[in-house]
Specification:
Low-confidence stretches: none
Number of domains: 2
Structural class: alpha+beta
Order of helices and strands: HHHHHEEHEHEEH
Shape: globular
CATH topology of the largest domain: Cytidine Deaminase, domain 2
Strand content: 15-25%
Largest sheet: 5 strands, mixed
Strand order of the largest sheet: 2-1-3-4-5
CATH superfamily of the largest domain: Cytidine Deaminase, domain 2
Number of strands: 5
Length: about 190
């Protein structure tokens, strides 16, 4: 327990961006300050910086341990990564043989409702990273985390293509705001 753990959200936020700005911006939730909705103004730069620091800390933590033993950390990282995205994005987390994070790359960026993903490019990226395994993720800006039939077919196609070069697909996550769906947990892999 540290000296800040007993402080309220407003008290902590006040220390980060100042008391006056906290009273102007805080409306009962921290989420809009770190990941604004489409119709809100951008959060203060210090909030954006704080979110990026937390994302990097989570990424650093994932690079030191077996990601298969830390599904909650992967979910937290992905929620931070996709926070505030207004477009669909397809991301690959490349892992070594001990399932430690090598690198995370946004491979494809699309529109509000879809992203085109090319298996050939995914295989090339996995080989460049010298990955033994991969975890895929993409976001649904709509806020609905249920996979579409095309999401399921794409995952199977990527799994098949990567198996030809001995790269295992460990999971595919769909991030929709605070909701994160795992294909592996759903039995879709």
């Amino acid at each position: 327990m540290n000296i800040y753990s007993n402080l309220s959200d407003t008290a902590l936020l006040g220390k980060l961006i100042g008391v006056r700005q906290t009273h102007e911006l805080y409306r009962g939730s921290l989420a809009p300050l770190f990941a604004p909705e489409n119709d809100q103004e951008m959060p203060p730069e210090k909030c954006v910086v704080a979110r990026e620091l937390v994302r990097r800390w989570l990424e650093e933590d994932l690079s030191h341990g077996d990601m298969m033993n830390a599904p909650a950390a992967v979910r937290d990282y992905l929620r931070m990564h996709f926070a505030g995205y207004e477009h669909e994005s397809f991301v690959a987390m490349f892992l070594d043989a001990q399932h430690r994070l090598i690198a995370t790359h946004e491979l494809f960026r699309g529109t509000l409702t879809q992203t085109s993903v090319y298996p050939r490019e995914v295989v090339k990226a996995a080989l460049r990273a010298n990955a033994a395994a991969v975890i895929f993720s993409h976001n649904h800006p709509s806020g609905v985390s249920e996979p579409s039939k095309s999401d399921e077919l794409l995952t199977q196609a990527l799994k098949q293509a990567l198996s030809l070069v001995d790269v295992r697909v460990l999971d595919h996550f769909i991030v929709a705001g605070a909701s994160v769906l795992s294909f592996a947990e759903r039995g879709l892999l």
